[in-house]
Design brief:
Chitinase A, domain 3; 13 strands; alpha+beta; single chain; 454 residues
Length: 454
């Protein structure tokens, strides 16, 4: 080999070593997660870091939906702190939460990409409030990181996954909220008339007509070594004794349900026109018997309400001391609100600062609350006939103590519910149209994605 060839080869080896060192350094710094691509949608490629952001956002979204319904019990259904590959979402199919979220995130990328492109093409400008929220969330993470001894870079990667930094966070936040705020605009721009509402209700009344009822379940499951038939007979005998009034039982809270969400064992019975308040009967269902009491057929023509609250939950719901501490904190926060001026705006600040409920990020606000949406004590307070705007009180539910604030009556439930359904159906049709034939294609980097939940 000539000296010139050896010299050239040496230069190539040195160059390769330099490139390799740079790549390894980039990888160590996490920048590779912002370089390697995980998905491609209709010509737009998304990095592993961007995928991690959206996947994590979806995890938080799903958990918050469970939390708003079940409070601290939400982790029994979905635990974002555990390995999602080991948590079964659907017992019949064996689908895990990891399986579901992978598909859900791919679909979200498709919808987000097409809505973003459609919005840009239409010249839509997102409300500046969305990006102000992004700045506020980033500042909150900086503060949390500092308080827990982390750098903000390390903390955001712990929270959202490898490669997510301030730039990725804010760019994905902007893209995500731009897309779905554009969808909101499309929906709001729809013209829905009273005739449209009445026609939709006529065709789909089973989606809206509801009844309220209570029940008691007698379990007929056989203990180990016990005869299954005998266990069911005992359960039936107990149910019939409760029905006859010879045995006491504590029935469930009142349920407000449309027919499709009621146990099929007694759904037809509940929705019979002849049903009157106080009717009771026994129904076999699965491994036991239900004693069901009909309360009433619900009138759809009432006003929903807007209400704010601050939830103060006990650390240990089984401890009287924890409940006492929670009440003391609730009283302290209520006093702080009054010292600030006792306005609704002040209340929103207190809710954002102290409430452990998912509504805290919206100042504790629940809009268009309908009957049957909340637990009994919460709802009874909201729909008290004497309730007026500005009313405030501390109430207790199974979730903890709630500092309540009544904003006022909102839309009529019938109009609100049916109008929302019409707009939702039209929006879904629009989204289906713009994403038709569009799929998310996995790229090399998908192998590195969402490892924070593995």
């Amino acid at each position: 080999m000539s000296k010139k060839a050896k010299y050239t080869l040496a230069k190539i080896i040195v160059a390769l070593c330099v490139v390799l060192c740079v790549v390894l350094t980039v990888f160590e710094l996490g920048a590779s997660y912002r370089v390697f691509k995980a998905l491609e949608v209709d010509g737009t490629e998304y990095s592993v870091a961007e995928y991690n952001w959206l996947y994590t956002n979806n995890v938080y979204e799903i958990y918050n939906s469970y939390y708003q319904t079940y409070g601290q019990l939400a982790t029994y259904f979905f635990n974002p702190q555990g390995n999602l590959s080991e948590q079964v979402r659907n017992q019949e199919t064996g689908e895990t939460w990891a399986d579901y979220l992978k598909e859900y995130t791919a679909n979200t990328f498709v919808e987000m990409t097409k809505l973003y492109d459609e919005g840009k093409a239409a010249g839509y400008e997102m409300d500046a409030e969305y990006m102000e929220n992004a700045e506020a969330e980033w500042e909150a993470m900086e503060e949390t990181a500092k308080n827990n001894g982390y750098s903000v870079g390390d903390y955001v990667e712990l929270s959202y996954g490898r490669g997510v930094n301030e730039k990725v966070f804010k760019e994905m936040y902007e893209r995500y909220y731009y897309a779905f705020s554009y969808a909101e605009k499309v929906s709001k721009d729809e013209v829905v008339t009273a005739e449209d509402i009445d026609a939709y209700y006529t065709e789909n009344s089973e989606l809206f007509d509801s009844v309220s009822y209570k029940y008691y379940f007698t379990d007929g499951s056989a203990e180990e070594g016990e005869d299954e038939k005998a266990a069911m007979e005992d359960a039936k005998a107990k149910a019939e004794a409760i029905l006859a009034g010879t045995e006491a039982a504590e029935f469930s809270e009142v349920n407000y349900s449309v027919k499709g969400s009621v146990n099929p064992a007694f759904a037809d019975w509940l929705f019979e026109e002849a049903r009157v308040s106080g009717d009771k009967d026994v129904f076999e269902a699965g491994n036991g018997y239900y004693v069901v009491e009909f309360v009433e057929a619900n009138d759809l023509h009432y006003n929903t309400v807007d209400v704010r609250h601050v939830l103060v939950a006990p650390e240990d719901s089984a401890s009287e001391d924890s409940w006492k501490e929670a009440l003391e904190l609730a009283e302290k926060y209520a006093a702080e609100w009054k010292d600030l001026g006792a306005t609704e705006e002040n209340f929103a600040e207190i809710a954002a600062k102290y409430s452990v409920d998912g509504s805290a990020e919206n100042g504790g606000l629940y809009e268009n609350v309908r009957k049957g949406q909340m637990v009994d004590e919460f709802e009874d307070w909201c729909f008290d006939s004497a309730r007026k705007p500005g009313d405030s009180e501390i109430i207790k539910t199974s979730y903890g103590y709630h500092i309540m604030y009544f904003s006022g009556a909102a839309e009529e439930y019938y109009t609100y519910a049916v109008d929302s359904a019409v707009r939702g159906e039209r929006l879904n049709a629009y989204i289906d149209e713009i994403i038709e034939g569009v799929e998310a294609s996995e790229l090399f980097g998908i192998k590195l994605a969402a490892k924070q939940f593995a």
